[in-house]
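Deliverable D5.2: sample structural annotation.
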Amino acid sequence: MTKNNEKKSVYEEITERIINSLEAGVIPWTRPWETARYGEQRNAVTDRSYRGVNIMLLNLVANMKGFVDTRWMTFRNAEKLGGHVKKGEKGTGIVFWQFLKAMEQKGSSAVDSEDAKQKMVPFVRMYTVFNVEQCENIELSPLKITVGPEGTKNLEAEKIISLPNLKYGGSRAYYSQSKDHIVLPVREAFENLDFYFSTAYHEILHWSGHPSRLNRKLGIRFGDQDYAFEELVAEIGAAFLGAGTGIPFEGMRHPEYLNFWLQILKKDNRAIFTAAAKAQAAADFVLDKVGLSVIENEQMPAAA
């Protein structure tokens, strides 16, 4: 734990935000339908989507303050666009990764010897962004609705659920790694199609972790740490899939794991970063398989 007179690390600060959100019953990877229909949280200048843990951080603020616009920018970006941040508005801290060069050496060789080689070391930093609704006099195009005509989102969802070997029957949804198939109740058993697709997305995220695909450690039984962590990855990744295809995730699909997730996050302040990264990789993998994704690096602030 960090002492009161010590500055919190980026990992501690962000993990604390996520823990506080979960304990308050607010799910940081989900968004209500009326905001989800405008697509993923994105950089207002580059139009690139934010990724991983940044999606959660921006969702939290958007949900709390009721922002519908999903575009964000730095203070200096607002000025360059001819406007400014409204007086009294508070920004949101999100992260970006820099890769710094470090030297590896063999034995006691000198740094500039032939035996020395460079490696890239990831380094996380924070910067502050503001939602477009926190700014004024900004010259931007109108916000676009990303979901097309009625039924379009279902066509995209159907492509995704056609990927695994899918079987229907029984009263619960699950993925069997040994048989490499997903079992779902019949569609008519779900209260609506959105709930059917979001449930299927969760199981498809588990399917993505098979050794022949992304090879994640899936865990063995309810309650063990690997199992609980994989459930966290699947929960977050399924919501990322939903954001990319217009399927709303308005609540937690598996609340029975909440206490396990809180234990994991409180024990390791880097766990949420790992879970979000694995969830993003899984969502990218699934979307890419059906031709719905253009994988891009998250834009660093143009004027940080």
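Annotation notes: The longest helix spans residues 225-245. The chain has nine helices and nine strands.
The annotation will be released with the project's public dataset once the embargo ends.
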